[in-house]
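[stage:ingest] chain + small molecule (nicotinamide-adenine-dinucleotide)
[stage:ingest] validated
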Amino acid sequence: MKLRVLITGGAGFIGTNVSRKLIAAGHEITILDNFHPQIHGENTSLPEDLSSAVRLVKGSVEDRELLYKCLRNQDAVVHLAAETGTGQSMYHIARYTSANIMGTAHLCDFIVNEEHQLKSVVVASSRSIYGEGKYICPNHGVVYPHARTNASAARQFDVYCPESDECKLQLAPTDENSKILPSSFYGITKQVQEQMVIMATRLKNISSYALRYQNVFGPGQSLKNPYTGILSIFTRLALQHQSINIFEDGLESRDFVFIDDVANATVAAVTKGANGQHIVNVGSGVPTSVMEVAQEIKSFLSSNSEIFISGDFREGDIRHNYADLGKLKEVLGYTPSWSFKEGLHEFLKWALAQNDIPATMADYQQSLLELKERGLLNKN
Ligand SMILES: NC(=O)c1ccc[n+]([C@@H]2O[C@H](COP(=O)([O-])OP(=O)(O)OC[C@H]3O[C@@H](n4cnc5c(N)ncnc54)[C@H](O)[C@@H]3O)[C@@H](O)[C@H]2O)c1
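[stage:predict] done
[stage:export] tokens:
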């Protein structure tokens, strides 16, 4: 059945890829996006292949009237529009709260109070809501370590058992029943977003999916946003043969999931139409260290960059996290198919073909300065 789908933030990385797949499957897409300059620079157009294939509305989800207008006559909404920088969220708190929570509040007001045809809502949640996520302690079983603060001062990057700092913890895949313990304001906004959507859709008996994306990467991700996306930042540094500053000891890890897998899982959620409210991790299920990321990028690009382990620590960063994918398979029938290396090579080939990458790293240096000035980047 052909669906009319509104994608908020649809001009962004995940949104453009989800749009392409939904269009290919015959669905009708409207995109609402404010072309945030931090992500798009001066470009306020969609990629060429999408511009004639979707209805584009330029504006913010914080503009209630405009959002309502876009939502009328839609069968489904994929709510992606958001401020997305973990580090930046630690000092632009009202800005992140307004875009992420107020935007979602307008969506929920519409769902609850207006006449509409919405049958399905997908909201972009994030692994950041787990904070440090799940670990196994030999003495205390499953534990959820607290957020680290000022870790670099003592060079104690690893997390400790909340019951006793004598215990040596073992990292475990984080499942959807794990404790919610966000370590950034961004994470808090994502937690609130998903809970709001779940409550509003439950009230109206509409199906909904909160997709807890891990670290998404691949062709199309912003190469201009210096506040988030280590793959983009490392790639830009490597292309300019500049030193790559690795925070902590480089052993911190993330679950990097390729965009094609994320777009497939998101499309499955939009089109599934199952009843009820569902919370699903979307990741690769594999942790990869930040050091490994830097080394792979440097090697693929034959860069002369020095990889420099600085021991710096950024407030709000987690040590490790990777997803348990049981529910992704069970609820959405999806299993990711891209390995990190395969995906990274696709991303780097794409990045090499872009001609609008900022020529200097001045924006990145500025983003670090903003953290330092506020005491949020602890130098070793
Ligand atoms: N990329 C990841 O690794 C990742 C991980 C977890 C969660 N997420 C979530 O997925 C969603 C999409 O992320 P992405 O990677 O595509 O980010 P992105 O920055 O590429 O895209 C976000 C889009 O939203 C738009 N936008 C921002 N504020 C807006 C507003 N107030 N009104 C309308 N549009 C607005 C931006 O212009 C941009 O086009 C976000 O909600 C993000 O929090 C992403």
